[in-house]
Amino acid sequence: MSTPAHDRNLQRRHRRVATAVVCVVAGMAGMAYASVPLYEMFCRVTGYGGVPQIAKADSPTRGEKIINVRFDANVASDLPWMFEPEQQAIKLRTGETATVFYKVKNRSDRTTVGLASYNVAPERAGMFFNKIACFCFTEQTLGPGESMDMPVVFYLDPALEKDEIMKFQDTVTLSYTFYASKTPVASAKGKPAL
């Protein structure tokens, strides 16, 4: 006995709807998976959210404005590190390159790995804050009781002097927070340390 044409059409519509639903769900899952890297890329390119720019060399021009650059250091509670800037603030002319150091010490009796997240306040300053070198670009590994001085090399783009918001700003804060890395550390016995 053959299926009436009406039933075949209904089955085809159900299959199309089911296929469309599966495609929409798969597309949404794909977008959710890609949203974090796409957002991070957007922030790095635009300075949105106070994310500094990454520069390959010193600024080609010098500005006139002197900015007070403050330094902030934080450590997540699950990382047994002491972390602080060597100096709390500097005065810097736009376009001039500065090198500052942060001190870090592992206060535990085991090797630990940390990764620093960073931002600049006010958020608008992120598009003008250019890092040439920074410990925050890679994970940092410290042995038991080990300490280290870590440099940050940066400049403030003189273009901030013409920005309608930043031209009235005289202080910028560079802030770091170290988090325990998810990368396991090999102990002396070859087993991952916790």
Structure in words:
- There is one protein chain.
- This protein has one helix and twelve strands, in the order H-E-E-E-E-E-E-E-E-E-E-E-E.
- The chain is an alpha+beta fold and 194 residues long.
- It folds into two domains: 1-46; 50-183, Ctag/Cox11 (Pfam 04442), CATH 2.60.370.10.
- The strands form three sheets. It has a five-stranded mixed beta sheet.
- A hairpin with a 5-residue loop joins strand 11 (185-186) and strand 12 (192-193).
- It starts with a helix and ends with a strand.
Give a nutshell description of this structure.
The protein is of the alpha+beta class and 194 residues long. It is built from one helix and twelve strands, in the order H-E-E-E-E-E-E-E-E-E-E-E-E. Strands 1-7-9-5-3 form a five-stranded mixed sheet. Strands 4-2-10-6-8 form a five-stranded mixed sheet, with no helix packed on it. A two-stranded antiparallel sheet has the order 11-12.
